[in-house]
Amino acid sequence: MQIVKGEVQELVDPTGILDGQRYEFLLTVTLDEEDELFNEEGTGLRMLYSVKDGERKMLTYQFYELATESPFDVEWDEEEQASAEQYCNEHFPEI
Predict the structure, then answer these.
(1) Alpha carbons 55 and 52: distance in angstroms, whole number
(2) Domain boundaries in the chain?
């Protein structure tokens, strides 16, 4: 898996119910054709992070088809997870 581009935005909780801050990463990834996540239309990865007391924690992730935003119900392997988390840590906004 290779991350070709990404964007991050802070999600604002208008109710004030959630503790800390939330950030959503939207990544575009390329995969080998043999990978079960490969899609000719392109594959995206959405990751949600929580930041509380200066500590970051990934809450959830979801692979999806770029063209339709339809999610894939699959789990990633350790290498894919490490690559995505490294990208997010390198591109995290200043807190």
Answers:
(1) 5
(2) 2-90
